[in-house]
Design brief:
CATH architecture: 7 Propeller
Oligomer: single chain
Distance between the termini: 42 Å
Radius of gyration: 18 Å
CATH topology: Methylamine Dehydrogenase, Chain H
Strand content: 35-45%
Number of helices: 1
Number of domains: 1
CATH class: Mainly Beta
Strand order of the largest sheet: 1-23-22-21
Order of helices and strands: EHEEEEEEEEEEEEEEEEEEEEEE
């Protein structure tokens, strides 16, 4: 396993104070860009994404970027005013998905509203969600509901508070969810982590390859990852040591985690698709600035 800790000046400048919130254990001033390798956003630097291959400006109209999810040459953004360009107007508290298919969760009514033709439940009151192209799952008052290709994977129970969906190009689709006491369960098609583990911050691969990895963070910030392709009695896979606040699994055999010190640790296969030019992520800003005036 090849691992690299990225502490480039650009990354450090983008996250000058990666303090940890005692409430949820997540870094207060930096976040990973979900779904893409080696990028972070900093709420301290407004509309800038810091990546391994250089900075990526985002046309924000003076708003602060709170969260980003990305796919190949596409991205979606949640800003500090609760807006998500590309979905119906509203005040959103969360954004899930990728650049190609994404949904927001409204902060006032708990409705799930999505981009394009991506489907979601029409009623409100939802507390958490995760989606991938072709479906997703959401939690309301501890119970789970799934739609699209994840509908057969729904988990029964009334004490869930976090859900993650995974999928790949060969047709595998799986759902894992955390119960209120921190234990994680997965649907019957996929191995659950060791039963004694308490986890949060779940992440799963949604890739164009064959990957089947899911990860979570222990209470001490260490990582636990497991994989359906391993031995059924020992699905746990090797990961870097350290204390982390967030993890993303953007491609087969590759992962990045944000440390409590603001450093970005990435491991696995090559981080960038072969043949892609170094600056291609700059195209992310194009859908947000159609008239070219630098504002939304």
């Amino acid at each position: 396993m090849r691992s690299a800790v990225l502490t480039l000046g650009l990354l450090l400048a983008a996250c000058p104070s990666a303090s940890t919130s005692e409430a949820d254990g997540f870094a207060a001033s930096t976040r990973l860009v979900e779904g893409y390798v080696g990028c972070i956003i900093s709420t301290a630097s407004a509309a800038l994404i810091a990546c391994i291959n250089g900075p990526v400006p985002v046309a924000s109209g003076g708003k602060t970027l709170v969260k980003a999810v990305a796919g190949r040459n596409q991205a979606a953004f949640l800003f500090d005013d609760g807006s998500i360009p590309g979905v119906p107007p509203g005040h959103y508290e969360d954004l899930q998905g990728s650049g190609a298919a994404y949904c927001g969760l409204t902060s006032d009514t708990g409705h799930i509203r999505c981009s394009g033709e991506e489907k979601a439940p029409g009623d409100g009151g939802w507390d958490a969600l995760d989606i991938a192209l072709g479906g997703g799952c959401a939690i309301r008052q501890g119970a789970m509901s799934c739609w699209g290709k994840f509908e057969p994977r729904v988990l029964n129970g009334s004490d869930f508070d976090e859900v993650v969906v995974g999928g790949n190009a060969v047709g595998d689709a799986w759902v894992c969810a955390r119960r209120e006491r921190g234990r994680v369960a997965c649907d019957r098609s996929y191995p659950s982590p060791p039963s004694q583990e308490r986890l949060h911050g779940l992440a799963a691969q949604v890739t164009g390859g064959t990957g089947t990895t899911t990860c979570g963070l222990r209470d001490d910030g260490s990582l636990l990852c497991w994989d359906a392709s391993g031995a059924p009695d020992n699905p746990v896979v090797a990961v870097p040591q350290g204390s982390f606040v967030e993890i993303t699994l953007p491609s087969d055999g590759f992962a990045c985690a944000l440390g409590t010190d603001g450093a970005l640790t990435c491991w696995g296969s090559e981080p960038f698709p072969a043949g892609e030019p170094a600056g291609y992520l700059e195209s992310w800003s194009a859908p947000l600035d159609a008239d070219g005036d630098g504002t939304l």
